[in-house]
Amino acid sequence: MQDKYTTFKRKRTVRQVAFLVAVAIAAVIIGTVHAGNLRAAAEARTITAWILCQPNDYVNARQNPGTRSECVGRLECGDAFEISDRTKNGFFFSPDFPCEYGEAWVYSGFIVLEKPENADGKMYTISANGRVACRKWIEGPRRCWVIDGSEVRVYSYTRTWAVTNKGFIQTQYIEGLGD
What we know:
39% strand; SH3 type barrels; 3 domains; 15 strands
């Protein structure tokens, strides 16, 4: 009887360890690459970040990390501000935000770590093997598909993302951008 119990206990422990490893791997895979890159760059200090969004649009800064939290300020496209390595629910903490509270949370889907370049709404051609996803925000849900050879109007961009009239598109698929 003791032998069967020991075997059962050992198998249960192996299953628990396997489950924990699977959960850890899933967390790594599911974790947003973009937010991970921002978090790594911030590493327990504040760094300058910029807002990348559609022209004449803005991003809300919130009292707490969530879309239902009170708006305590807003950032216009291209605005620079400080973020720390503190993150929660896809939001980055800004410890020295110019608002009544002196701090705020900003959604990572609109944050970049380099100053965006202005493209003045110039037209560019998509160069891809098939189609390219345009997104609602950086690494966000797909908004539409843009096929190879189509033209898009580009408003601003960084090395990796461009804000277009279709949505956010990775710059690697926009021919001649940044040349």
